[in-house]
Specification:
GO terms for molecular function: ligase activity. InterPro entries: Lig_Pab1020_C, RNA_ligase_dom_REL/Rnl2, RNA_ligase_Pab1020. It comes from Thermocrinis ruber. By secondary structure, this protein is α+β, with helices and mostly antiparallel strands. It has a domain of 64 residues: Alpha-Beta Plaits (2-Layer Sandwich). It contains eleven helices and 16 strands. Strands 5-13-12-6-11 form a five-stranded mixed beta sheet. A four-stranded antiparallel beta sheet has the order 1-2-3-4. Strands 8-7-9-10 form a four-stranded antiparallel beta sheet. Strand 1 and strand 2 form a beta hairpin. The termini are far apart. The relative contact order is 0.11.
């Protein structure tokens, strides 16, 4: 067990690192930032703690990175392009936390569509760590190309309440198989000598438009690193350039560096077509932002997601309205379609809209 000392919690509260949250009458404490050894997203409920999902390092080269990071063989699995959730039993309810530690009304409501709930009946102390991905998710713009509509869940880890420990990989696999849990694609056990084998895998994932892989060492320390494809880096730029000012400059330089190093290691030629793709990824989003600013007076992205009840859709939209001071959330519509209530809303990027509005009106800036 890994319990949080009461004095640490009191200090975190005093420094405004922890916030009291409430989900349908369930009160809990949420760590808003990393604090000492406690990761962001850690949630303290009355009878247990759910530790935040740890940060995972990234390598930029396989040929040198594997030998530097691993001392034992490691498992490789797909890194799915979506958002992180932790699913758990609270008294008699199944809840789902976001990466930041919020109980998410959307994810919580959709769990039973994808997860065998008998897992929690048999293992009430275990927590499923999963990626939620698809074109109708309410958090991220990107999704794997093999998901054509709605969302899917992909379990990638199982942890314990009151503990930062993950179940050993083989034990996790047994539980996934026993309960028929949806899982990320698992590619097996590799060694540091399997660089060429991994390069072939990455080449295939890149061609299929997938994000990349996570590698997990088969050892007591359970070392983890991630490695992503050229496609992923390019797609990140393409999607986020519409909100260029809402992200720090190193978001983009980091992805350009990933892209260049992936090309170098995979022997991908820097031809005219690729140069055009990189330029287009930056400019297309900016041109779209300018067009939206001129036409609508704002810069935004529209999201769509499905709820089983109108109540949860309204609860969700209220919960995300105050998530960021730089983003305004505006509801477009909420209507019943078949078995679901479909919510559509815009995320308005205030910084981008403000600057473009100023410049298009003839304003000046000092640079």
């Amino acid at each position: 067990m890994t319990q949080l000392p009461p004095e640490l919690v009191r200090e975190a509260l005093k420094r405004n690192k922890v916030k009291i949250e409430n989900y349908k009458g369930i009160e809990y404490l949420r760590f808003m930032d990393d604090f000492k050894d406690v990761p962001r997203g850690t949630a303290l409920f009355k009878s247990f703690t759910l530790w935040g999902y740890p940060h995972i390092g990234r390598i930029f080269q396989l040929s040198t990175g594997l030998k530097e990071q691993f001392t034992h063989p490691f498992f490789v699995e797909e890194k799915v392009d979506g958002y992180n959730t932790r699913i758990f039993l609270h008294e008699d309810q199944i809840l789902a936390l976001s990466r930041g530690g919020y109980v998410c009304p959307f994810t919580t409501e959709r769990v039973e569509d994808f997860i065998n709930l008998k897992f929690f009946e048999d293992h009430p102390n275990l927590v499923l760590c999963a990626e939620v991905a698809g074109p109708e998710n309410p958090y991220v713009d990107e999704h794997p190309p093999y998901i054509k509509d709605d969302i899917q869940f992909f379990v990638f880890d199982i942890m314990e309440k009151d503990s930062q420990r993950f179940l050993p990989y083989r034990e996790k696999e047994k539980l996934i198989e026993k309960y028929g849990l949806p899982s990320v694609e698992r590619y097996g056990l590799f060694s540091v000598e399997d660089v060429d084998k991994l390069k072939r895998l990455m080449k295939r994932l890149n061609e299929e438009g997938r994000e990349g892989v996570v590698m997990k060492e088969d050892s007591e320390r359970d070392k983890r690193v991630k490695y992503v494809t050229l496609y992923s880096s390019l797609k990140d730029i393409e999607i986020t350039s519409v909100n260029l000012l809402g992200l720090p400059p190193d978001y983009f330089t980091n992805r350009l560096l990933r892209l260049a190093l992936f090309m170098e290691e995979e022997g991908i030629e820097a031809d005219q077509e690729l140069f055009l793709k990189v330029g287009k990824a930056f400019l297309e989003g900016l041109l779209k932002a300018i067009e939206m600013s001129k036409k609508d007076g704002r810069v935004y992205r529209t999201f769509r997601c499905r709820f089983k009840t109108r109540e949860n859709a309204l609860l969700f939209i209220e919960s995300i309205k105050h998530a960021s001071s730089q983003v305004q959330v505006l509801q477009r519509r909420l209507e019943k379609e078949g078995d679901y209530w479909v919510l559509e809303f815009d995320r308005v990027y205030l910084n981008m809209a403000g600057l473009l509005g100023h410049l298009l009106a003839g304003g000046s800036i000092f640079d």
